[in-house]
Amino acid sequence: MLKIYNGGLNVADILKAWYEEESLSNYGAFIPFIGTIRDEDGIDGLSFDIYEPILEKWFKEWQEKAKAKNAIIKMAHSRGDVLLHQSSYIAAVFSPKRRVALEFIDEFVEDFKASAPIWKYDLKNGQRIYALDRSTAIKGSGLLA
User: Fold this and answer.
1) What domains, with CATH codes, occur in the chain?
2) Which alpha helices (H) appear in the chain, and where do they start and end?
C-alpha cells in the first residue's frame, strides 16, 4: 500500500490505520520508520515533488520482495510543503518474525533514499529552493544512463 498525501503526514492516524488493517493478519512484528523534517540550515520546512508512475513501479517491486519473505510493506509520503517537525515519510513492514521486519525496513528505507523519484526543496524565507546538496541521482537517470 502506497499513499501520497498533500502536506505533512498525520503520523498517529496513519500508524493507527495500518495497525488496525493488519491486526488480525497474524504478523508478529510491525516495524515503522517515520521521517521528520529537522530544523537545520535556517529552513522553514521542505517541499516535495513526486513522479508517481515511477514511484508506483518502484514500490510494487518492493511489495514483491516483501511477499517473498511472507511480509508486507506500506508507505506514505508527502507532496508539497511540509513544515519543521512534521513528518513527510512513513514506511512500515509487517512480518511474522521481527528479524525479517527489522532487516527489511532498513533495506527499504536505504533504497528509498537512493531510488525513489522524489525531489526535495528547501523552504526558506517564503521561497522554494532545490536542495541539490542533499539530493541523490536516481539509478539509470541522466543523459548517459
Assistant:
1) 2-134 (3.90.1170.40)
2) 11-22, 52-68, 98-115
β-sheet bridge partners, residue 82: 46
**94 - beta bridge partners?**
30, 72
pTM greater than 0.85 (yes/no): yes
Sequence letter at residue 144? L
Write down the residue that cell numbers 508486507 correspond to: 72
User: Contact, 86 vs 45, CB < 8 A?
Assistant: yes
Provide, rounded to the nearest whole percent, the portion of the chain with pLDDT above 70: 92
Q: Are 6 and 79 in contact (CB under 8 A)?
A: yes
Half-sphere exposure of 15 (CA within 13 A, CB side): 13
* CB-CB contact of 117 with 51 (8 Å): yes
